[in-house]
């Protein structure tokens, strides 16, 4: 590891932080079943960059959908 530049270590640290955040958010997600969580964990761990980006897009779209559902339930309720 002596030949790694400081920016390499920074990139690795940021990358690991993103993966850890994804796994923690996935574990805390109550709307996903156990099987769904296991599949996402496998994807994130085995295909890290694609898995993280896929999870992030799914997470953002889910948050937007939940926000729209809440807004619609307030206006129709």
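^ Assign residues to that structure.
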């Amino acid at each position: 590891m002596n030949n790694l530049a400081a920016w390499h270590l920074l990139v690795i640290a940021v990358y690991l932080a993103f993966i850890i955040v994804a796994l923690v958010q996935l574990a805390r997600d109550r709307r996903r079943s156990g099987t769904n969580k296991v599949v996402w964990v496998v994807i994130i761990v085995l295909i890290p960059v694609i898995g993280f980006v896929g999870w992030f897009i799914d997470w953002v779209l889910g948050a937007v959908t939940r926000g729209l559902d809440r807004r619609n339930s307030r206006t129709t309720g």
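Helices lie at 6-28, 34-46, 48-76.
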